[in-house]
Amino acid sequence: LQIYAVTPIPENQEVLQRDGIPNNIKSFYKVNHIWRFRYDRPFHKGTKDKENEFKSLWVERTTLILVQSLPGISRWFEVEKREVVEMSPLENAIEVLENKNQQLRTLISQCQTRQMQNINPLTMCLNGVIDAAVNGGVARYQE
User: Fold this and answer.
1) How far apart are CA 72 and CA 66, in angstroms?
2) Which segments constitute the DOCKER domain (predicted)?
3) pLDDT, position 37
4) Among 32, 41, 52, 117, which residue carries the largest CB count within 10 Å?
């Protein structure tokens, strides 16, 4: 028995991408009428480079497609289809950077619309991007 934390994949991606749509509406579409979920399992293919582990870091992405959408009234939902795809280190790096850019856009938008009184989350996120001391940041992906 294996238990994974899954991420919902919204059907209406265009609603989530548009500017000017309130965050509460985007939040609704992120977790309602969901048919697909995914989880990632990182692994090293080939020899692991001790100086830069991102060179050989692949990701096995599993997508689960349900028979019915969530949320629902049933206690369990049958998985109709399971798709497994391997993502290369380059594809993984691109996705990580795109996700970080989206996170920054969301924080900036919240600061501009005054939804966030404290700007510390934005400051910490910017510091992590500009001075990435933990994993080497973008420079490791460039190698």
Assistant:
1) 12
2) 1-143
3) 96
4) 52
